[in-house]
Specification:
By secondary structure, the protein is mainly α. It has a two-stranded parallel sheet with strand order 1-4. It is built from 5 helices and 4 strands, in the order αββααβααβ. It has one domain. It is 47% helix and 9% strand.
């Protein structure tokens, strides 16, 4: 994978952050057009670690849809992005201690 080679070139470490769709919380359904299995296969083949935002952010929410704009948009609202970025900063601190590496999120 080209991105992994580029990041490795500056002694970084690439991580894939999995963000779930609104539909997965609304209908417990993920539209096949999101190509979830294909994408996860592409990143696991070269052993790119996957960080799931669901466990760290959404699972603890009594109403995960409240983190999406107007509960209907496919983008997160300010609180959703704040929680996700906080989780990424948390992982960054943990991983820096273990790997002493930079994280690049594509």
């Amino acid at each position: 994978m080209r991105a992994n080679r580029i990041v490795s070139g500056w002694d970084g470490k690439l991580y894939f952050v999995r963000l779930h769709s609104r539909e997965s919380y609304e209908d417990d359904y993920e539209w096949p057009g999101y190509f979830r299995e294909h994408i996860l296969g592409v990143v696991t083949e070269p052993n790119i670690p996957i960080i799931g935002a669901h466990k760290e952010v959404f699972a603890s929410q009594s109403d995960p849809l409240s983190l999406f704009l107007g509960r209907e948009a496919r983008h997160y609202n300010a609180e959703g992005y704040r929680l996700i970025s906080g989780a990424m900063a948390y992982f960054n601190e943990i991983l820096k201690g273990s790997y002493n590496a930079n994280i690049s999120i594509f």
